[in-house]
Design goal:
single chain; 90 residues; two-stranded antiparallel ribbon
Length: 90
């Protein structure tokens, strides 16, 4: 099953930004998500995660969320665009 038109879809830009927040390399993300390095590279490339499987996108999301990253959808921040940030501890 491929990911298409999913409102929870991550973008290549969000993946790169989340890696930047954590100061992770692509190999570190691949290890944390239990995916291959070529898969991570492909998801960060021009095509983005849109042609990846749901399981691979969720593995990336889970790895970042486990490390404290929150993904923002449209309208979830004052500027209204997609983004990432660190989770606020309550």
């Amino acid at each position: 099953m491929r990911v298409e038109n999913n409102t929870q879809m991550l973008t290549a830009e969000q993946i790169r930004a989340a890696r930047g927040l954590l100061d992770w390399s692509q190999p570190q993300l691949a290890e944390a998500a239990k995916l291959s390095l070529p898969t991570v590279r492909r998801m960060e490339g021009p095509i983005g995660p849109g042609r990846s499987t749901v399981a691979n996108v969720e593995a990336i999301r889970r790895a970042f969320e486990d490390a404290g990253v929150v993904f923002l959808g449209v309208g979830e921040s004052s500027s209204g665009g997609l983004g990432v940030r660190f989770k606020v501890d309550s």
